[in-house]
Specification:
The chain is of the alpha+beta class and about 120 residues long. It has a domain of about 70 residues. Helix content is about 30%, strand content about 15%.
């Protein structure tokens, strides 16, 4: 427990807290996209599983499944000490072998590259 009496689970996250781990995953995802490593770009389902694996004691917490809500907080600087990340995090989906970015407000998609088939989501 931390000084506020909240549970702290850092066993699988390399010592990072929940917010720092979300921020690291979002940043790593955008780096993979920018470098053209489309096979390494994670979908929201894969991000959820990564968080649940890193924080098994919190796997059932609703925030672990609300990737878009956490992404919005990240993009507005609430996970990074009010520092707006550059680049901002985007939602990605896989269709066939392609990776597509979904623009949250317009709900448009655009194909970004081809990755090996991913059956996990």
């Amino acid at each position: 427990m931390n000084r506020n009496g909240q549970m702290v689970d850092r066993s699988m996250s390399g010592g990072m807290g929940v917010q720092a781990y979300w921020a690291m995953l979002f940043a790593r995802n955008e780096t993979a996209h920018a470098e053209g490593r489309h096979a390494d770009v994670l979908t929201d389902g894969q991000l959820t599983r990564a968080m649940q694996e890193a924080f098994p004691a919190r796997a059932a917490y609703p925030v672990m499944r609300r990737v878009q809500t956490v992404r919005s907080a990240y993009n507005n600087g609430r996970l990074t000490g009010d520092e707006i990340p550059n680049p901002r995090s985007h939602r990605y989906i896989r269709r066939g072998r392609g990776v597509e970015q979904v623009e949250s407000k317009l709900r448009k998609t655009r194909t970004l590259g081809v990755a090996p088939a991913d059956k996990t989501g």
